[in-house]
Amino acid sequence: MSGKKRFVAGVVLGAWLSLSAFASAFAAQDIPLKASDRTAIVQTLAAKMNANYIEPAVAERVGTAIVKKNAEGAYASGASAQAFSALLATDLRELSGDKHFGASVNQGFRESGTGPYQPSSAEMDEARDATSRRGYGIDKVERLPGNVGYIDLRGFGMTEFVGPAYTAAMSLMAGTDALILDLRRNGGGSPDSVAYLMSHFFPLGDRRQLIEFYNRPTDSTRQVWTVPTVTQRYDKPVYVLTSARTFSGGEDCAYGFQAQKRGTLVGETTGGGSNPVGWFSVGQGIVVSIPTSRATNFVTKTNWEHVGVKPDIAVPAAQALQTAHAAILRKLVSAAKDNDERTQLQGLLAMVEKGEVEKPVYTLRGAP
After folding, report:
1. 214 has which bridge partners?
2. pLDDT tens profile 259-305
3. Residues facing residue 299 across a β-bridge
4. What whole-number distance in Å separates Cα of residue 47 and Cα of residue 210?
5. Pairing of strands 277-283, 264-267
6. Domains of the chain, residue spans
7. How far apart are CA 337 and CA 268, in angstroms?
8. Residue from 111, 32, 114 nearest 288 by CA
9. Which fold would CATH assign to domain 134-274+292-321?
10. Which helix (H) or strand (E) holds 153?
């Protein structure tokens, strides 16, 4: 993948980069490395972790371990920047337990210190186009049997790109009796976009803080609130589907629904990554993502780092949609006041519980 495509993919897929959402910028070309190059890289990496990683004690331990492994020749197979970055990425995650660590090659990367990466107009235009081509992260919007809404959301792109699409999707869901938000394949993205989406699920005029982020390099804290200008609101029951693949910003969303008591989580415990990252150059074109911030949910005063978000109804991810749909239909059956409506809902519930689906009819009604 070219550097330009990698940059765009990073924006579209939303890898929970927080203030450094535009870290990958231009072309990456693999280059050979000598032992002295690897030594310089690990020393630089250790120093930048010590200065920036959100957990100083962990940074020191991991940095020391990597420097020692290099001195012992454990990275001799990393004979190129690509190969060495892959080894570093694996060790950073395993030694720290922090799944947000990463390393890749990007010769055109420009480290911007503690501030956010500032993309050019051309980069923004291409990222906007790529976001739209990927449906703004919305893979599917559907009305399931029983008037149950369903949105499959794969990532949280930049708010200015995806916000209107979220509102459009919620407009289509306005008349449903309940909504299923599927985050089982959501890998994360912008916390501001998480807040923008969640703003649709609280009453108009209800403005509340959802989360805050402490950034170690700047020694600053940023709060994230719901957005009062969102006009489309949804007050029906919400079920949120999760899996072990749900990560980062996807977890932020699921955790927020649970903490705010606004949704019921169904599925598996999520991946367990809450620390947003910054991107740092460590030499020879290798760029490392270092978690620089700590997320704190406003309600729980903690986060999901290492432990994941635990569902209210635990089932294998593959069964989560069926389980949530059936749970909704049972409540609709209990609440139904019309006998015909109740009978129809009971029939739909029986089908869902059996894993059956309504078959479409393509013949004219009344035709022989």
Report:
1. 221, 294
2. 999 999 999 999 999 999 999 999 999 999 999 999 999 999 999 99
3. none
4. 33
5. unpaired
6. 134-274+292-321
7. 34
8. 111
9. 2-enoyl-CoA Hydratase; Chain A, domain 1 (3.90.226)
10. strand 148-153
